[in-house]
Amino acid sequence: MALSDAPLLRALAGSRPEQTPVWFMRQAGRSLPEYRDLRVGTRMLDACLTPDLAAEITLQPVRRHGVDAAVFFSDIVIPLRLAGVEVEIEPGRGPVFANPVRTASDVDRITAIDPASLDGTAIAEAVGMVTAELGDTPLIGFAGAPFTLAAYLLEGGPSKEHLRARAMMHADAEAWNRLAGWLAQVSRRFLEIQRDAGASVVQLFDSWAGSLSPADYRAFIAPHSTATLQDIGIPSIHFGVGTGPFLSDMRLGGIADGVGVDWRQPLDEAARILGPDVTVQGNIDPALLGAPWPVLEAHVRDVLARGRAARAHILNLGHGVPPETDPDQLTRIVELVHADD
Predict the structure, then answer these.
(1) DSSP state for residue 289 in the 8-state scheme
(2) Helices within 156-258 (DSSP H only)
(3) Distance CA 284, CA 286 (A)
(4) For the whole model, what pTM was predicted?
(5) Does the active-site annotation cover 308?
(6) Which residues pair with 1 in a beta bridge?
(7) What angle do CA 260, 24, 210 make, to 5 degrees?
(8) Whether 75 is catalytic
(9) CB–CB of 218/209 below 8 Å?
(10) Percent of the chain with pLDDT over 70
(11) How confident is the model at residue 4 (pLDDT cuts 50, 70, 90)?
(12) Active-site annotation holds for 43
């Protein structure tokens, strides 16, 4: 099979392949014992920037589960690290920034960095290693959306309500738009590095978009996310958590070939909202990965049935794989989907 015939690429092009493609967000990572063994003694961001390590971690779930796509092992803050921003991943907490962006002068400081100056050598090398082994299985490159990155930068780390980011939009819209515009360029550059090195698809993650009102999303976020993906040159997927109130906006004016749907919204209902010109991705409830197999199997079959309401469907989770997941559950899902089609 040629790479262009891969079920994932056919689904994103709008046709229904004989086999529903399936992959899992966060499939490369903490749920796999081989990942934990490989990561011993290595900090998260260092692992992301060590080409042979990042490549091996990317490939592990493809070998174990037989998924229809690999997703590049990295982190949404890696392009910020490449831009010289001081950030670390604290175990059990997440990204922590030494110098949060809080004021217009802070925005001036960080946006003075040229996104074109990002050194993507390690990323490109890792992507090349992965694609050389994948053959006809596509590699998905990814980046964080401007709002989610801004939420981390403004808070200095993870938060529940992202109040500083939401406040800046209204307190200083000019500073907000400069920051979000710069982050769009940084994420765009990160996607381009992965694309140019061999990724076949890109996905933009907006993990915290659900904290926004529809009006704020449309006014302050959508233009910057659109700039990140506009004319990227390969198929794109846009995913956010809690985006049901403005799901149709996740199409970004039609530039996204696929839209990821979280577990809160039935997939057939989401397909009706999104319309006939976009592929849906999702939306197994990650919590059900811990349920007995008969319960999970029934849920997966229901998601597949509802996905038929869309022009095409990519089976995935409604968010990432929880770290405590039994990897065998994921393998069984893949086997079920492939046997069912």
Answers:
(1) G
(2) 163-171, 173-197, 214-216, 222-229
(3) 6
(4) 0.97
(5) no
(6) none
(7) 35
(8) yes
(9) no
(10) 100
(11) confident
(12) no
